[in-house]
Amino acid sequence: MKIATRSIIRDIDKKSIEKFGIPGLVLMENAGRATADVILAEYPYTQAAAVFAGGGNNGGDGFVIARQLISEGVQVITYVATDPRKYTGDALTNYRSLNKLGGEIVELNGSLRKYRAADIIVDALLGTGLEREVSGFYKKVIEFLNSQSAPVIAVDLPSGLDSDTGHPLGAAVEADITVTYALPKIGTSVYPGVDYAGDVYLANITTPYILEENIPYELLSAYDVVEMLPPRNADTHKGTYGHLLVLAGSPGKSGAATLASLGALRVGTGLVTVGVPSSLNPVMEQKTTEVMTEPLPETDLGTFGKLSVKRALEIASGKITALAVGPGITTGDDAAEFLFEIINSADVPIVLDADALTLIGKDPAILKKAKVPLILTPHPGEMARLCGLSTAQVQNDRIGVAMEFSKRYGVNLILKGARSIISTPTGEIFVNTTGNPGMASGGTGDVLTGVVGGLIAQGLPPADACKLGAFVHGMAGDLVAEEIGEAGLTAGDLADALPEALSAIPESEEEPVIRIR
Prior knowledge:
CATH architecture of the largest domain: 3-Layer(aba) Sandwich
Shape: elongated
Strand order of the largest sheet: 8-17-16-15-14-13-12-9-10-11
Strand content: 15-25%
Helix content: 25-40%
CATH class of the largest domain: Alpha Beta
Largest sheet: 10 strands, mixed
Distance between the termini: 15 Å
CATH topology of the largest domain: UDP-N-acetylmuramoyl-L-alanine:D-glutamate ligase
Number of helices: 19
Oligomer: single chain
Structural class: alpha/beta
Number of strands: 18
């Protein structure tokens, strides 16, 4: 499902009107009618409604909603937060229409004392065009709406929310429902905007579908990834489903290697070999049954180093179809030499995670020396080290940071976290919708490394492996949380649920946005 920035929506509106000849009044009427339909369906016993209208087209939508609700017998008071003499165009037309209909319109004039309690509240104050912090009376109104017990229905976007980042601009309405138009907005598709938007309904207001074709942003659902599932034909064998080599582990961190390997097996990879420092090999043989192990020459500290490279590349030059490198390899100079030689020399796609990302953060230019596709799976702290930013800066613009890094270094990337972001070298962005807070525990990222590596080993293109990998990883976490709860969910639980998650994808009918038919 495509999602849009404020500039994309502005362009769609403009072209719908100017190129396709759809009057703005028609678009506004369709938007208002769809919103009224949602209100009447979700709150069928509504007798009194309060519509808070701002000064732009968002306010115009509010006037249509008020008129539509009045026609259904609802008592509506429309509270105007601006000077009505400032209305122009379609908003002015609908203001006059509501006035002529006899709708009760109250000019607030900087005071909320005239408000009368209602069953539901419609937030039509500020739209997607907002780019600066809310202040003055509008901020006061937003805070007032958030203090009310009545359900709040936001028009297109909760007022005060940044349409592109999902962060409140000084203050934002906390809506129970958001009815959005043409396309969902990025701001309601990522956190913290997800929490401000409530349940999101998508209304088709008859903007032409052709205007959505080249949008590079997408909200992932089961519908989007089901075609990526690797086929399982009857006449096959283990070699059909690829061979992943996992290079991971160090003293005290053998679990990282184990979990990455298990993640790969659980998504159907035919063969998995884990290469570890030689002193860890007996431990790995005890921990794993289905995974093959390879002891590699090690440093005096029992870690990977330059002397490990030759054997690692010998193994990788066989029938290996993908590499996963990084979990638990440590971050010393020896590990850096090992990692950079692997990146320089490998001839199969590489998934890089954990300690590998910390090491790359010291010299990101190494990524450009690879002759194979690279996939990075950082959490926000690792992303910050890769970019030379603070974690807060990454979190404030997750999509922008991920997109810029992928394009600069030519890598596919999964920026982990609530609503993980997948970015590609060509500038595409995919927002994952699965997962839960229970997955914020040690080892779940190692499982994801194996999942993505295993899917690439099975022949999926790197971008598809990232999309399907993030989605099924989160879905497995959701299945475990449904069964045992979020607290105490472990990486091993998640890995064990991966086959069930893969099987559930074709049967899933849930979408993150409710389409209004």
